[in-house]
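Exercise: predict the fold of this chain.
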Amino acid sequence: MSKEITSKELEKFQTAFEQTPGSSAIKNAVANNGIFASSETMASKIAMDPTFSVELDTGSVSDQKQSGLCWVFAALNTMRHPIQSNFKIKGFELSEGYMLFWDKLEKSNFFYENVINTAALPVGDRKVDFLMTTPQQDGGQWDMIMALVQKYGVVPKSVMPDTYSRTKSSELNTVLNTKLRKNAITLRALVNENKSTEDIERIKDEMLSEIYKILVYTVGEPPTKFDWAYRDDDKNYHKESNITPQEFFKKYVGWNLDDYISTINAPTEDKPYNHVYTVEMLGNVLGGRQVRHLNLEINDFKSLAVKQLQDGEAVWFGSDVGQSSDRKIGIMDTDVYNIEDLFNTDLSMTKAQRLDYIQSMMTHAMVLTGVDLDDNGQPTKWKVENSWGEKVGTKGYFVMSDSWFDEFVYQLVINKKYLNDDLKKTFETESKDPKVLAPWDPMGALA
């Protein structure tokens, strides 16, 4: 039975407010300074000193500017660190625009195929609505960038530099999503009119040709072969001639991409630990690498990151960066704000509850480049390489408390060699037939 708010109850609310100690001072402080500034703690600033017992030498940070390509920046940053070290090239950067081009083309094809596969469902069906809400976007996940690298390789930023639409992607996204939705109308009609597969594929190819043209206009045309020259830190001259992006990746990065897998910490009842999951309708490259998540308990999850850092290798991770964080000073800490004391209210939720009730999900990808360990070898805080330029944090680097890691880090990319034998076997076996999560599951959120 519904119950309205009565004038009698309003009087009670007003009286309770007036009887709250310090209510007048709190009202003035929050009105003039806002919630976060009024509740920011000095203790957090002191505790999050940017000094770490394990720290990689990674150089200056990159800047994604006004785009949602953090997942691409974070992945390419983990690749450029060894390039800078192994080939002595300070300040080297891989082309994010090259990856953006192929990602948006592949996402367009992925969208078209999902439209065709769901054409029998009515408009208003939850899956159809999910597709049409965001046909494509800048965000992604680790397996999606790996699918692009496996198919297209990588190139230096000097070979395919930034354009306006790489640094400010909103205009391009608006045009692409309008075009994709318009084409969805056509594709759904063709399927429901029982047109032949050949006719549908021919028309879809024409649609993709238009998308390709738009991307060339806005992002640039990706090279199939290129020349590249550089001087290393010892002033020695080097030149590559007529090299392909795949050859460049093999020579300068040289990873076995299958070694690097997505592990998650999702403590919800529908995802038992030590099992592998995927997400329906999540991906970009059809026929390429698909999303696979190995769900781990938090202590196992963190210990893998520590091991990888101790071996001198950075860790790509996905988190909810907007929670309990101060962007300007570069702190992510559950104690950075004390809003509960400010308002004398309870805001506590478990990590599982935040996921289940859509209070939190992965929103941003960054790179772990250091960790501070106590005398027992347990982490107390983490060094984070962001992709927001050098004007935030400590020249672009953030400090993350271990308690923040527990609550708001959802995904880590780990080399399989750090898994124990049982987890390796589980991943290899279950990846062939993972449990499929709904398209809107929080583990399908794009960084």
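Check your answer against the key: The chain has a mean pLDDT of 97.
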